[in-house]
Write a structure and sequence with these properties.
Blueprint (H helix, E strand, L loop, with lengths): L2 H14 L2 E6 L3 H4 L10 E5 L6 H13 L7 E2 L2 H6 L8 E7 L2 E6 L1 H9 L4 H15 L4 H17 L5 H19 L6
Parallel strand pairs: 1-5, 2-3
Antiparallel strand pairs: 1-2, 4-5
Helix pairs in contact: 1-3, 5-6, 5-7, 6-8, 7-8
């Protein structure tokens, strides 16, 4: 997976899909031209519960047309997204066409989705996404992320040392960035 493949996927999605869709996960970083690591899938899910299997099958057809295995499309992200109350309020439109839209999560929702597992690659994705968002967001917006991370740490399993350490490092980074003066180029 790379930026060019994601671009080609989105071009075909806009031609072939209808309705609202969400791009999630590490692949989202390619959208922002952050090609810092390799990922093997595209977390791309329908928005709302009204989508049919036919809609998901169409995404697999797009993958096949691009020469990718169908399992490249990871629709399992929908399970985790739907567990988050009011997640729709945290989505931003990144592409719009006559018959549909593609959304992405804001920083808060990206963190909520990643911190549930927070592997090393999830942690690094969070740092990269934080850099992207910091170019646009104010420190007040980051305070909401900090509050979420503190709660996640408090509620986390004390035996899951790697995840807890990654949450602590994220808190430190966000707090540091919240206090840093915003630089405009």
């Amino acid at each position: 997976m790379n930026q060019e493949t994601l671009h080609r996927f989105i071009v075909l999605a806009k031609k072939k899909l209808k309705g609202d869709w969400v791009l999630l996960g590490g692949t989202l970083l390619y959208f922002f031209n952050h090609d810092y690591r390799t990922t093997t899938d595209i977390d791309f899910v329908p928005l709302g519960r009204g989508k049919s299997n036919q809609d998901l099958l169409q995404t697999f057809e797009i993958a096949t047309e691009l020469g990718l295995p169908v399992e490249t499309i990871n629709s399992a992200a929908l399970y985790f997204l739907e567990k988050i109350p009011n997640y729709q309020d945290e989505l931003l439109v990144i592409h719009k066409w006559k018959s549909g839209r593609i959304y992405r999560p804001n920083l808060y929702l990206f963190f909520v989705l990643k911190v549930a597992r927070l592997s090393e690659s999830d942690y690094l994705d969070c740092l990269e996404f934080l850099k992207i968002e910091l170019e646009e967001k104010t420190p007040q917006f980051l305070m909401r992320v900090t509050d979420f991370l503190k709660k996640a740490l408090k509620d986390s399993d004390r035996k899951d040392h790697e995840r807890r350490e990654n949450i602590k490092k994220l808190i430190e980074r966000v707090v540091l960035l919240t206090k840093a003066p915003k630089v405009r180029s």
